[in-house]
Amino acid sequence: MVTDEKKQELLERLKNAVIQYDEDASKEASNEVVEIGMDANEAIFNGLVSGMEEVGRLFEAQEYFVPELLMSADALYAGLDILKPHVQQMDLGVKGSVVIGTVEGDVHDIGKNIVKMMFDVAGFTVYDLGRDVPLDKFIEEQLRTDSDLVCLSAMMTTTMVGMKKIIDEIKSKNPNVKIMIGGAPVSADIAEKWGADGYAKDANNALKDAINMVSSLKKMKEEADARKRA
Fold first, then answer.
1. CATH topology (fold) of 4-86
2. Among 40, 98, 121, 122, whose CB has the most other CB atoms within 10 angstroms?
3. What is the pLDDT of residues 85-138, one digit of tens each?
């Protein structure tokens, strides 16, 4: 039986290991999570990912820069390598498929990888295109897989402008697809202006939004099928 006190201590250690970009501390705390049988999902999302979200805040506030961001990511991945084999899939009542990637010209994929992992754990089928993805590739992959959702990520203002082209193209070919955008320079206003269906401020919001979008999409499909049968 893991006490609440022990759980909180480990979550704090995981979070701080990422913020302080300490790979050894991340491995040590992650191994301890496994040894005592603590929930790996909780350790990842309330420990490691919380740390990365704080790093993202420090980056936006210009207290951290790209080198710190990358070292923090190394500490995050060091812990993930240990915890991922112990992750239990959640049953959230909705499953869907998603195409995800970081847009062309952008090689920052830390946030994208966290969101991808959330989708994996939630039981979504994920088609991960990686980073620096040519704009047309998102469109091709959505048409090939008939995915419910396309998630676009960008960390730089110079690369995020490509998102609008992808949104316009996908919507013209398949207006029912839901599109979510995310990344440091992106805002809810930009998402609305460019015609995206959602904006992911962080990984938790991305998953919540995705579940709502996929639910509404499935409902639309059911209603259309019912009209056809009528």
1. 1.10.1240
2. 98
3. 898 877 767 778 999 999 999 988 888 888 888 888 788 899 999 999 999 999
Inter-residue contact 86 to 34 (CB < 8 Å): yes
> What letters, b where the CB count within 10 A reaches 16 and e where it falls short, cover 154-163?
bbeeebbebb
Q: pTM of the prediction?
A: 0.78
